[in-house]
Every structure is written in structure tokens, then in C-alpha cells.
What we know:
The protein contains 14 helices and 18 strands. By secondary structure, the protein is of the alpha/beta class. Strand 1 (about 5-10) and strand 2 form a beta hairpin. The longest helix has 16 residues, at about 240-255.
Amino acid sequence: MGQYLLRCVSDRSVQPAYSLACPHDNSLLRADYQARQIEPKNLPGIWRFLDWLPVQGIIAKAKGAPVTYRSRGLAKELGLENLYISFNGYWPERGAKNPTCSFKDLEAAPTMQMLLERGDNPTLVVASAGNTARAFAHVSYLTGQPLVLFVPEKALDRMWTAAEAKGRGTGQVTLIAVQGDYYDAIQIAEKVQSLPGFAAEGGARNIARRDGMGTVMLDAALALGQIPKHYFQAVGSGTGGISAWEAALRLKADGRFGSFLSRLHLAQNIPNAPIYYAWKGKEPLAASADMFDDVLFNRKPPYGMPGGVRDALAETGGEVYGITDLQARAAKKLFEQSEEIDILNAPAVAVAALEQAAMAGSIGAKDIILLNITGGGVARIKEEHTLSMLEPQITVSHWEQAVQFLEGKK
């Protein structure tokens, strides 16, 4: 089981098990696991990594997991001999069966399990640009855990789930549409989270979310027998990059997978790219209302705090790429044609960054590289499942409207 101490990154002080913040500063918390070496369990999905997940039990029906495979098609196109892909979507021929076609399935399951283990049965509150909300809704249907989702209006088309999952679930899922963007949804959700009977999922501050995402690196290291030299991912908040770094730190300390950390290559969709501009020391351009994938835009990412994105990039010698819509669109086509599976827009941004790095010579042709495809297979899942749309119960523009609506439901 995932026995651990919860420590502040800044001073390593021990905090209560379900904390989301350090009392002395804005440092992230990190799980210090009793198991110093990872021993995979005979359990479904990410639960095989239970030693390094902050939970005692599992949600057996939540079987989402990363799948690592060696690329042939894209590797040939880019001239890379050791390109490996972590596919986090639905592609049963490869063994990938994430039910909402996104690596957010890796976050939602351990976060929900940790909440259930708290024992006070609060209603979980989640703000999302779509993919995260979809994943949490699915797990709510599996567990019966009450859930309130705040999603921007323009992201409602992403709010689907497999019809059979929704039909058999007992979860009390309340979907609230927000007039505004993802940041507006976050602000309203924060007001609701402070009410009695509600709980914040915590975003980047939740170790269950980060360590769930960290299983991408764990799965790759076990498949390869070593930590990959380079790690590519498209990011909004950058939490996935932090997760990969933390998992690599644990693998390095394990002693069996190498003595180095993966170099982080994070990609954002410009001009909505605060991490890119901060890392490059550039003045941000005006944000655009339209972008290739708005799930990659978080106005206030966990960048400068102890244990945040800046620390992850600095310790790994990392790089951040600014990718245009045109570059992302071309990269999406390249991946889908060469690997023969559809992907979401966000990972196409990572593919474009990989292409740039290969052309610039900042990665070697023989280097072991891990590309995180953070979502895909929507076209593939439609061949086997009927998708059911989730409809919002109300649309709000201010937090007072949300509170009034939720109090009226009691």
C-alpha cells in the first residue's frame, strides 16, 4: 500500500495526510513513500503502482493506465531511433483503454480514492476546461461519490461519457456551465469549495493527482528498464511536467533505472503560453480567444512556488516550446498518419515540440525519448461505445449564482 509522509518541498516539514497547502509558505507538498523501490502489483490499471500512490485501497473498476510502446512511424519521420510513446487514450489494439480518452483518467481515480478514504463524504468540487471534468464524472459514476463540476460554456462539447458507465453509475454529478474561461471556472469553484460539506480537489497541490500522472514515467521506466533521457509533453498548468519530474526523482532514488533525471521538454500553444514566456523571460503577448486547444491555457500556473514548474525545469535542464496553431495542426496530421490513431489537439502541440527539437539537434537520434500523448482515440472509442453527453443544470456568471443553486438542491 502507498504508505507515506506528506512533506512541504521547501523545508520537508511533515503535514497532515490530506493537506493541500503548507502552513509557512506557498510550497507544494510531496509524498515521501515508505517503499524506496517500486514493486508492481498484480492489480488493474495504475493500481499496479500502488506503492507510489497516496492511497490504501483501489477503485477496481477504474482501470485506466498509460501504455508505453516503441514508435515506428513517427520515429522514422523524425529520424529518431529510440522514440517511445506513452499513449494515454483509447486504443485497445495497443492495450490502451482509458475510458475518457485522456490521461486525466490517471488523476481522477487516485484523487477520488483518497477522498473516499477521508471518511467524511464531502461533495468534491472540480473546475475544468473539459477533459478533467469528464474523467472525474466517469469515476463518480463508478463510485457514487457526489461531484460538482464547473466547466466553461465553450468546453461543454467535451462533456461526454460512455453511456453504459453513466447508466450503471450512482454518482450525483452536477454540471454547472460558466460564462467565461477556465480561470473564471476556477474562481467560482474556489468559492463553492469553501462551503461546509464541499471539498476542493486541489489541482496541482493534490498529491494524488500528481502521482497519478506520474505513472506515465513509471510505466515507461519499467517498460524500458531505465529512465528516458528526454520527456515531451504539452502543458497548461504544467502539473504534468512536475509529476514526471517527481516520478523520475523516485526512480533515480530507487537505484535500478539510472542515475539521471529525464530532461523535461514542455510545450505550450502561443500566444496563450504563460509558462513559455516566463521561462524564456519574454513579455507575454496578448491572449487570444481562439487557440488550437484551450485546455492548454491556465492563466496562473504553479510556476514559481517551491516544487513548481520552474524548479522542475531548472533541475532537469528543461526547455519550453511555444507552438503556433499552424505548427500544431501539421503535427497532428503527421502523428495520425504515421502512427495510425487519432489524437486530441493538446498532444499535437507536444508532437510539434518534438519535431522542433529533432530539427534543431537538441535531442540525439539515438537518445531514448518519451513522448506523452495525453489524449487520443476518440474516433476509436466511438466504434465500440455509445457516448452520452452531460448536460449542465445551470449556467452562471458569478459565484453567488452557483451557491444559491447548490443550496437550493439540498
